[in-house]
Structure formats: structure tokens, C-alpha cells
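To: structure desk
From: M.T.
Subject: fold request, one chain
Message: Could you run this one when you get a chance? Sequence is below, nothing fancy, just the single chain.
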Amino acid sequence: MITDLFAARSQMAMSLGFHIIFAIIGIGMPLLMIISEALYLKTKDQTYLKLAKKWAQGTAILFVVGAVSGTALSFELGLLWPNFMKFAGPIIGMPFSLEGFAFFLEAIFLGIYFYGWDRVSPGAHWFAGLMVFIFGTASAVFVICANAWMNSPAGFTLENGVITHFDPFEAMFNPAAFTETLHMTLAAYVSVGFAAAGVHALKLLKQPGSRFHQKGLLIAFWVGACVIPLQLFSGHLSAAHVAEHQPIKLAAMEGLWETTAGAPLTIFGWPNAKLEKTEYGIEIPYMLSILAYRDPHAVVRGLKSFPKENLPPIWPVHVAFQIMIFAGTAMLGAAFLGALLLYRRRGGFWKRRFLKLLVLCSPLGFIAVETGWMVTEIGRQPWVIYNIMRTKDAVTPMPHLFVPFLLFSALYFFLGIVVVYLLRKRVFNDVDG
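Reply: Done. C-alpha cells follow.
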């Protein structure tokens, strides 16, 4: 069973890690599209129209591949985790159903947007793009609400292991729903903004003075730069929620072993499970208590205060959390520097040094999202539904799970090649202007 559990978790982790990239692009790319088209409608500058069409092509390609990987995930939920779905399906079925409804509306309006150039009025065409943006975001929000329920289950009554009553609305709008959906949605805008800015910066290094890539860079940069401070604030809200509802996860994130009043914030460091301490870390006194409870003398529970059988894997959670924080801080620094250079108007924004910096920052949003989800999911272990159902009790009894693991790995590898090929051919090819 341990081998089957490892295979099931590995397959789910791989599927989620692959699909989440397309999910956040489906949230963020339509925002770039509608901003660019709005600027075209206002200025009649054909460069903005070219940008909107290029970004629409990328959105369509990634939407299709994301639909395939998302469909695979829906099958995996039933095939790999039947006990979880049997228990949770009636409770969180509504957000999954609403996600499907939003997904179909997104697909309809994306078809209108992609094929509606010169076929519908400019205003109607922009409105179709706006609907792609709204329903793409809504689709992700509904799924995140279901995941939030796994972290803070609510909306049901459990008697002797049997559900006697449930409220789907209370379950969907569970205590973790707001902080998780806000943090993830803002992360999508930041990730796509910096990724697109990096692509255009790379093109400008090869084609200095290109108006197309200059305008694309400015739009993408300002989206990322304006949202990243909000994203860090939403991260603070998420951490405060975790401190209240999942203190064991907070302790793992920080590598805090001893229950401490006025707990320090640990930067870097390596949790040593044998010695039960975090080595080589840099501590900022009182900061964890302040961030978690707004009180410099607040008591923060350490890992030693929890039963060992309930502890998550410590070092993956702590290291993933540190990487996420580093990526977010680096993007905030790049955003501040870029805004300062544009404010000074001395051309420093377009110099090769800063363009290279943006290229280096381009993957950081995706890295932060992946590591953030690792914190969310691994930090909840050993529970699939926090304090209700253990992961080992949710897995399928079907043997030889390494076979579907290999098959799905091959599927994602093939889809990855297809995405790279189509993006290089249809989106990343050179554009005059």
C-alpha cells in the first residue's frame, strides 16, 4: 500500500504541477489581451492590435492543452482517490460543477474572440475578451474553493463517520476560500505579467527599438509590477489564516520546533528532523509572532507540540516556502526598480542590464506558484481532508499504479513538446515593428 500511495501521490503531484501552469496562464493572459485591445480601440495604434492577436494565439494554444490536462486530472480524482471522492463528492460537488460551467462559457467566448476579428463589432469583440478573462478567473476560483475546503473542511455534520447533513454553500465558502482564491488569482497575474515581460525583454535584446516588443513589455511589466505588492499582502493574509487554522503547517513552513513566545521569522535554514532544530537559518526576532498574530509577544506553537504521526514532511515544506518567498521578493525588487527607472525617464528601463534582469525574473512567478502549491499540499499531510481523512485512507486499492503513472508521464511529456512547438511557431516568432 505504501508503494501504491507513493505512486498515486506522485502521479497527482505531476498532474497538478503540469496543469497549474496552464491554469494561471488562463487567468492572466486574457488580462493582457483586453488591455492591449482596449489601448488599440483608444489610440488606433496597430501595434496594440498585433499584440492582442499574438497574445490571443498563445491563450488559445495553452487553453486547449490545459483542457486536456484538466480532463486527465478529473479522471485521476475518481480513479486514484475513490474514497476521498465518495466522502467529499456530495459536499464539494457544487464548486466543481460551477467550474465546468465557467469553463464552457470561457471556451465559447474564447472562440468568439479568436475567430471574431472583423466579424463582430470592435466593442462586442472586446467584450468577448472581457468574458474570457472573467470566466477564466471564475473557473480557477471555483476549483481553488474546493481545495480550500480540503484545508479547512466546513459545511457538514459528521456522526459516527457518516455525513448526516451538509451545506454546499457553506462548504464552498469555507474559512480558507477567500485567502486561497485571492492569493492564487493575484499570483496568476504576477506570473503571467513577469513571464510575458521577460519574453519581450529577450526579444528586445535581439531587436533593440522594436515598438511591438516595447509596448508588449510595458503592458506586461505594469501588470506584474502593480499586482506584486498586493500579492505579498495576500500572502500575509494567507499566513495569518494558516496560523489560526493549521498551526502545524505554519510551524513546518518556518521550521519552528519549539513553542515560542515572540517567535522569530527564520530565513533560509535547513530543518534537521533528527536533532529537531533548524540549522543555518537567519532569525529576525519577534517577526513571526507579529506576522501571524499581530503581536510581538504572541505564542507560536512549535513542531514538538504536535503528535509525530501528524507532522508533515518538514524540509520540503520549509524549503518550498523559502523559495516562494525569495521569488516574490525578487519580483517586488525588479518591479520597484523598473518603476523607478520609468519615473526618472532617462532610458534606463530599456538598457540591456535591466532587460536581462527581466529575463531572469520571467520564470520566478511560475516557480513561486509551484512551490506555493507544494507548501499548501505537502503541508496538509498526512491529511487529504484536514483532521478528517488521512491520505492513506483515500487512495485506491488498485495495484500496479506505476503503470498509469508512466502513461500519464508520457502524456504530459508529449503535451509539453506540442506546447513548445506551437508557441515557437505561432507566438514567439519574430514580429516586425
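Reply (cont.): The beta strands are 156-159, 162-166, 260-261, 265-272, 277-284, 299-300, 383-385, 389-390. Let me know if you need anything else for the meeting.
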